[in-house]
Amino acid sequence: MLEWNEAIIVENGHLEHPGYRYHFQGRDNDLIFRYDNTPHFPGLETFPNHKHLADKVSAANMPSVQEVLKEVKRLLKTPQKR
Asked: Over the stretch 2-39, which tens digit does the pLDDT of each residue have?
């Protein structure tokens, strides 16, 4: 499941993204990844932007729609451990 939540504001012809969450999980509801900008990891160099994996959180800039879809596609082609 890929869940896409994004707030977009257009102001003076400029797009702003005050909040986003791109959440990808497996069949067993296990987290594969989630990108978001919830401000709860202030020590990361890309704060508030970051990426959650099953076992860690790392610095990550806000990805584009195309980047997220490419990552999902690549991961779906990778055999999963059962």
From this structure: 999 999 999 999 999 899 999 999 999 999 999 999 99
pLDDT at 81 over 60: no
Cα gap 50→62, rounded to integer Å: 8
Domain ranges for the chain, please list them: 2-77
The position carrying tokens 């790392």 is 58
Q: Report phi then psi at 65, rounded to 5.
A: -55, -45
Location of structure tokens 């067993």? 28
Residues in Cβ contact with 45 at an 8 Å cutoff, skipping those fewer than 6 apart: 59
The residues that bridge with 9 in the sheet, in sequence order, are 16
Q: What is the pTM of this model?
A: 0.88
